[in-house]
Amino acid sequence: MKIDVIISAEDIHDSKIKNKIVVVIDIFRATSVIITALNNGCKEVIPYLTIEETLEFAKKLNREDYVLGGERKAVKIEGFDLSNSPLEYTKELIRNKTVLFTTTNGTRTLAKSVSAKKVFIAAMINAESVAKKLININEDVVIINAGTNGNFSMDDFICSGYIINEMLKYNKSMELTDISKTANIIYKENSDILSYVRKATHYTVMKSLKLDSDIEYCVRKSIIEIVPEYDGERITYTK
To answer: 11 lies in a domain?
Structure first.
């Protein structure tokens, strides 16, 4: 079992992920939203690259059956119901509804991952459950960091390290690439996640927008047990 890490959406190539088990991470905040929304009872999350695609699909649905969610430059899209804050996706608002979702980095990363054998959604909040699922599947894994605007992001990288660290508890003989080993080392040396991510560029952006509550939520470890899966069209999970 081999574990590799891709450090931004710009570095995704079919040669690296085709027929592999892929895990997509965008903890600030797309994958944290997806996991939270599904855990709170939404029917499915359908990711889109553009605002226009999102609104076009919405026309096919009854208005009471969906919510529009997402952001551009970390700010809620005009006319959308919800932003990219996982704290907004409450049971009262999204239970049994479809979430139509578009973000700057996360949904773009998902779109570039469709050649993989399976695509799972991960963040700090469900990392332990993701690690257990990957161990049970026991196939080569590529962990993809969405990054920020095509660049490496410290926050996604330390989450990769957390997942790898959890996997090593079950299988110490896994083959790790150099980048996977580095992610694991970074996590082990920075168990206080918040102190580490304070140095990240996207953290600074979120702080400037007064998104402190989102930051605190997104760095919590393994508070949710579900592992959503993207089938190339929609994201759901099986109990």
So the answer is: yes
Within-domain flag for 123: yes
Average pLDDT over residues 55-70: 97
For 202-232, the pLDDT digits (tens) are 899 999 999 999 999 999 999 999 999 999 9
Token pair 């970390």: residue? 74
pTM tops 0.90: yes
Burial readout 71-88 (b: 16 or more C-beta within 10 A, e: otherwise) = beebebbeebbbbbbbbb
Structure tokens at 11: 């570095």
Find the domain containing 156 and state its range. Answer: 2-231
Closest CA to 218 of 53, 74, 60, 50: 74
> Tokens for 160?
């990769």
Q: What is the mean predicted confidence (pLDDT) over 57-71?
A: 97
Model pLDDT, residue 158: 97
Q: Has residue 158 been placed in a domain?
A: yes
Q: What is the CATH number of the domain that holds 165?
A: 3.90.1560.10
Q: Indicate the number of domains in the chain.
A: 1
